[in-house]
Amino acid sequence: MMINISKEVLAAEGRIRPFIRETPLQYSFFLSKLGSCEAYLKLENLQHTGSFKARGALNKLFSLSSPERRAGVVAASTGNHGLAVAYGASKLGINGTIFLPENASPQKVKALRNYKVEIRFYGDNCEATESHARAEARKTGQIYLSPYNDPKVVGGQGTIGLEIPRQCESVDSIMVSVGGGGLISGIAGYVKGLRGDIKIIGCLPENSPVMYDSVRAGRIVDSAVSPTLSDATAGGIEAGAITFEPCRRYVDDWVLVSENEICEGMKLIFEHERFVIEGAAGVVVASFVKIREKLKRRNVVLVMCGGNIDVKEFKQLVF
User: Fold this and answer.
1) pTM here?
2) Which among 21, 50, 101, 172 has the fewest CB atoms less than 10 Å away?
3) CATH code at 5-51+152-318
4) In the chain, what is the straight-line distance between the N-terminal and C-terminal CA atoms, in Å?
5) Tens-digit pLDDT profile for residues 119-143
């Protein structure tokens, strides 16, 4: 099923604009020099809850009917989606239950405890946690909020694509990290409707390349995945996910990066821009460095999708 992403994005803009930040688009002198281009950072690490996920979660929650809100919501997450749902549910007074894998980031778990939601742990990977959360939602009659496989979530994430062209009219390329595909589908689906010549570049860890492998195969596949610093993009893709077709249709190029490259990307941004970014954003920086020869003389936007990382882990990686 191919959703009308532009329509969903514009509807989301009307719902959530008062409740989200139009995050800054910051010029990077360092990356621009490194890549012989004009490089900008879209700072979604400064969004409410520390990641872009607040956009999609809020849009979905605001679209619920009164009976659905009363029933409450269930979400499964490695952290960022859970934080976003907890934030939105607290804003709207909706009861929420957040399921996380046992190995979820301690920093994200700690942050979740600031909100009035129930936290439960299940499984050691995203797929097991999501499957269990869905079953619980069916059992209790609550609404399950997918982190990516929902038109309202995709529309909310796509409001980033609405902001970028008005912040940088000359943008040529947009680089986005990819897990389940909600972020890149929303951005690409909207931006391509404005200007088809803007190149959309999907960035993934080599340890979890599921969407890349699926697009290459022409269908959603089960790829082997390994642990990755980019926990926010880790794991498989739900069968029949609405994000597959936009990724197949709108993403112009794909880049896969190693764990060492992700770590170096996180270090570069801290050293030269003084921002703490999580692994999924490090994937984008690493991808930029890897293909910088292709980006010469272009106006490139790198979406810094989040900054939620455990302090101890960040210190070990960067110092």
Assistant:
1) 0.95
2) 21
3) 3.40.50.1100
4) 46
5) 999 998 777 888 899 999 999 999 9
